[in-house]
Amino acid sequence: MASPDKVAAVEEIKENFQNSNAAVVTAYTGLSVAQLKDLRRSLGGNAQYRVAKNTLTKIAANEAGVTELDEFFVGSTAVAFVTGDPVEAAKSLRDFAKDNPQLVIKGGVLEGKALSADEIKKLADLESREVLLAKLAGGMKASMAKAAATFQAPLSKFVRTADALRAKQEEQGGAGTPAPAEAE
């Protein structure tokens, strides 16, 4: 029979899996408590980094419907539960792993799809959501400006042509215009 502490831990981890849009499983052997604290700080509000027992984490993941991670629950395991931008969290983990080679990214899951360690590194190479949205907005604005210029071009061309004809008629001294009728 499971102890109440273990049942509570499984329930908490299960909620973390359900409330996060991504989870990254790491190995942390060799990291000091201070380094783990720095890692948690670097993740900021994007993710919660939790060290947990493999058996409890595996049970919680399976109860939450996340079965893709079972192979990663071997050895020292910690999970970053991402609630913010997954790209930012992946960048933070990648950058921390560069400075601290003891942190090994094993794999993860993003919106129900399993990710390998290489795929998480590719995710970290993406630009943030805000940058991508800004680029999209800029592209859309440029398209709209081109469309407006295209629609306005025939009208402005017509106005320029009409002004040129009027100027030519005035230059020719009104030739080609009918003479006003004389009153009898």
Description of the structure:
- There is one protein chain.
- This protein has 184 residues and is α+β, with helices and mostly antiparallel strands.
- Helices cover 56% and strands 15% of the residues.
- It has helices spanning 4-19, 33-43, 54-63, 86-99, 117-125, 129-171; strands at residues 22-27, 47-51, 78-82, 104-110, 113-116.
- It has a five-stranded antiparallel sheet.
- Helix 1 packs across helix 3 (54-63) and helix 4 crosses helix 5.
- It is elongated, with a radius of gyration of 33 Å.
- The model has no long low-confidence stretch (mean pLDDT 83).
Strand arrangement in the largest pleated sheet? 2-3-1-4-5
Which assembly state applies to the chains in this document?
A: single chain
The structure class reads alpha+beta
Rg result = 33 Å
Helix content: 55-70%
Percentage of residues in DSSP E strands: 5-15%
Shape: elongated
SSE string, helices as H and strands as E: HEHEHEHEEHH
Number of strands: 5
Tally of contiguous helical segments: 6
Catalogue the unreliable spans: none
Average pLDDT score? 83
Please outline the major beta sheet: 5 strands, antiparallel
**N- to C-terminal distance:** 123 Å
